[in-house]
Amino acid sequence: QVQLVESGGGLVQAGGSLRLSCAASGRTFSMYAMGWFRQAPGKEREFVAVIGWSSGNTNYADSVKGRFTISRDNAKNTVYLQMNSLKPEDTAVYYCYADLPNVGRSWGQGIQVTVSS
pLDDT for 94-115, tens place per residue? Predict the structure, then answer.
């Protein structure tokens, strides 16, 4: 398994920026992807972005393309989500995840992002 700890959330005005971090520990050598989901109040958890741990290939939800950027630092076992031009509808709890072969998906505890209008 992999343990994940998110940081960097908080309150920001619309149009502002935040950078989320997710530090992984444990069986990090076997990770093949890391990414982010989010869940707004009363809504289902939705995909935000993913990055291939070795390849660096990325994929984004349409709702965040052009505004959010996912990146990783393999040496630090950390994935980042740079969020620019934030909108009130980006308000949610953001969850980091890691995918491992034969083990499945590990989740972080979640971190609140609130965007005020």
Answer: 999 999 988 899 999 999 999 9
